[in-house]
Amino acid sequence: METFYHSTRSRGELVTSKQAILAGLAPDGGLYVSDALGAEKLDLAQVCVSSFTQTAECVLGTLLPDYTAEELAGCVRAAYGAQWDTPAICPVTPLGTDWLLELFHGPTCAFKDVALQMLPQLMGVAREGDGHDVMIVTATSGDTGKAALDGFSGVPHTGVCVFYPWGKVSDIQRLQMVTQIGGNVAVCAIRGNFDDAQSEVKRIFSDRSLAERLSARNVVLSSANSINVGRLAPQVTYYFDSYAQLVRAGAIAQGDKVTYVVPTGNFGDVLAGYYAKRMGLPVRRLVVASNANDVLTDFLTTGTYDKRRPFVKTISPSMDILVSSNLERLLYFASNGDVELVSSLMADLAEKGAYTVPPALLASIQETFGCGRADDEMARETIRTTWEESHKLIDPHTAVAKHVMDALPQDGSTRVCLSTASPYKFPADALGALGVDASGMNGFASMDSLEHITGTTAPVQLSSLRDAESLHDDVCDRDKMGAFVESACARIFL
Q1: CATH top class, domain 92-108+230-457
Q2: 199: Cβ–Cβ under 8 A, 6 or more apart, which residues?
Q3: Over 80: is that where the pLDDT of 15 sits?
Q4: Rounded Cα distance, 82 and 105, in Å
Q5: Of 262, 156, 255, 140, which is closest to residue 148 (Cα–Cα)?
Q6: What pairs with residue 191 in β-bridges?
Q7: Mean pLDDT lowest among 2-11, 371-380, 463-472
Q8: Confidence of residue 12 (pLDDT cuts 50, 70, 90)
Q9: How far apart are CA 266 and CA 290, in angstroms?
Q10: Sign of the alpha-carbon torsion through 68, 227, 12, 40
Q11: CA distances in angstroms from 150 to 83, 251, 288, 472, listed in the order given
């Protein structure tokens, strides 16, 4: 069994990919990485004639080598089946002279489905015969929560506990979570923002006393956030598959380089593109698109990561993040595996709220990564112009990326904008961008109006929420999250 995953902050403990997926977070608080990343390249010619599911098996087999081909084939069949509304899974469609990678065709209408339909399958295989109950604990800025709830609902010997920031997700996003059925699910809003929730989830994972109490009941904790390598690995697939679609469409020739523009907050989505590049995908640039919470734009420009700034509530709430956890993985790889440096930088972030990377490290990162930002007004204008010019209705997160893409210098390269959610998850904001005053409308009235104005149709996964019963009304302070997890374990694993 190959034990080649270790923490970004130390090499003291090597684990298999199955062990890394089950643990979620390394014992020292670091994220699991493999020094084998990039040692094995995917066969690009084969990728270009393969389906999404075939490519998924190849990607996962490379990144998670202790899973057998048979195990991965079963996981892929279960994750990418009839719950998707297109056999393409993640289709690439024209957007003027550029392209749109549509990642919202899964059961919760957000890109998180690509990973969170897969993660329960990977965990299920990894857990065979372990005899433990597992509680998945996750913080969400809007989309991860529902995707995790949907993916893990009803999974035997597994519970899922989701925390979201009260008042800082869209009405539809909130309804997706609080209407979730299943005897193994728990949902709680917290008074604070996503960073508060994410930081406390990390603390819960390091709480030895809590771990001991849960262990006495045969319960262990794991994560469904993108800190889990089982979340990150499946996302690599859509970069390779999108490239193959472009080749088959005649938009590029095999070997041509492509620029991907990615709306991101926690850095997981764009990091998957970096993994793809390391694995042989011809990537020209990975452009990080930020909203008004532009901590990543500043970092990629100056080399200083500083979370000590006002938190801005925007119309792209899934990007309202000031601590981008997955950036730690990039720091590890870009520094050639300098665990001491990464550990020091993360300590500075925790203790001082900021860190600055050495100039050579920043230069290395800038060779691949570009950046840009768009505030709410820019995003609204982009939603409007994209509809008027291309008859494409996009959500506010995609609009941030589209604005940044449009501002890039024209170099003749093929550009792909990642579209991370259905606009119908944010109908009031889409309406506002199109010049309709949605104040006083609830999510469903906004949805109906958006359908009427555009002639488009809301996904049934979202429109059906109007008849769903609200089942989860818990709200707590940050310091009570651990107690909520413990009580959820007691309820679910009686």
Answers
A1: alpha beta
A2: 323
A3: yes
A4: 11
A5: 140
A6: 477
A7: 2-11
A8: confident
A9: 10
A10: positive
A11: 11, 35, 28, 15
Give 159's strand partners. Answer: 135
Q: Is the pTM of this model over 0.90?
A: yes
Q: Which residues pair with residue 373 across a beta bridge?
A: 290
Distance CA 44, CA 206 (A): 41
Distance between CA 402 and CA 419 in Å, rounded?
A: 9
In single-letter form, the type of residue at position 8 comes to T
* Structure confidence at residue 225 as a pLDDT band (50, 70, 90): confident
Reference 314, options 426, 419, 422; nearest CA is 426
- Mean pLDDT to the nearest integer, 359-375: 98
Question: How many CB atoms neighbour CB 485 within 10 A?
Answer: 25
CB 205 within 8 A of CB 223: yes
Cβ atoms within 10 Å, residue 12: 11
246 with 47: CB under 8 angstroms? no
Tokens for 22, please give them. Answer: 């089950």
Instruction: Determine the Cα–Cα distance for residues 335 and 345; give it in Å rounded to an integer.
Output: 12
Domain spans of the chain? 92-108+230-457
* Residue 247: closest CA among 477, 408, 46: 46
If you count them, how many residues does the chain have?
494
Q: What percent of the chain has pLDDT over 90?
A: 89
Tell me which residues are annotated as active site.
112
pLDDT score at 2:
65
Q: Are 331 and 342 in contact (CB under 8 A)?
A: yes
Residues 213, 180 contacting (CB under 8 angstroms)? no
